[in-house]
Structures are given as structure tokens and as C-alpha cells.
């Protein structure tokens, strides 16, 4: 996954916004140049996450991931 823009999303309740889960399967591609901006999370379990597996099956790279202008209200685990 590359060159993705996520913008003006309002979510909640739920799990929040996650990039991943990365590294579980050997066939996964790198994740690069992802922008999440102008989003609001309300009453979610998590805020913003980059999720990876501790014992990864591959060497997937996550790079160039940007979060900007994010509003978090009543989020249990913001970052």
C-alpha cells in the first residue's frame, strides 16, 4: 500500500484508525506515504496506531506515515 490519503473521517465508537496489522504474512508489501488528516475520533478504544506483529513472518517496512490535525475525544488509548 502506498500513496494513500485518509481525510475528514469521523469515527466512533470502535477501535480507532489503524495502519496494519503488518508483518503477519510473508507476502505483505511495504506501507509507505500514508497521510491521515482532519479526522475526529469520538469514544474509541484506541486513537491512532501502526500495528505490527512481534514475530513477523516478513520484513515489511512502514515509512512516511503522517498524522495531522486529529481530534481525539474520550479515547481510552489515544496514541
Structure overview:
It holds the Pfam family Glyco_hydro_28. The structure is a single chain. This protein is mostly beta strands and 79 residues long. The chain has one domain. It is 0% helix and 54% strand. It has no helices and six strands. It has strands at 2-7, 10-11, 17-22, 31-42, 48-52, 62-73. Strands 1, 2, 4 and 6 form a four-stranded parallel beta sheet that branches. The model has no long low-confidence stretch (mean pLDDT 93).
Tally of separate domains:
1
Number of separate helices: 0
Task: Kindly name the structural category.
Answer: mainly beta
Distance between the termini: 22 Å
% residues in beta strands:
over 45%
Cα-based radius of gyration, to the nearest Å: 13 Å
Summarize the main sheet.
4 strands, parallel
User: How many beta strands in the DSSP annotation?
Assistant: 6
Give the ordered list of helices and strands.
EEEEEE
- Mean of the pLDDT scores? 93
Low-confidence stretches: none
Tell me the overall shape: globular
- Helical amount: under 10%
Amino acid at each position: 500500500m502506498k500513496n494513500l490519503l485518509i481525510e475528514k473521517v469521523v469515527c466512533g465508537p470502535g477501535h480507532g484508525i489503524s495502519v496494519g496489522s503488518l508483518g503477519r504474512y510473508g507476502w505483505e508489501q511495504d506501507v509507505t506515504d500514508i497521510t491521515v488528516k482532519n479526522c475526529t475520533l469520538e469514544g474509541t478504544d484506541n486513537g491512532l496506531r501502526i500495528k505490527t506483529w512481534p514475530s513477523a513472518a516478513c520484513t515489511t517496512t512502514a515509512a512516511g506515515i503522517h498524522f495531522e490535525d486529529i481530534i481525539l475525544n474520550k479515547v481510552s488509548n489515544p496514541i
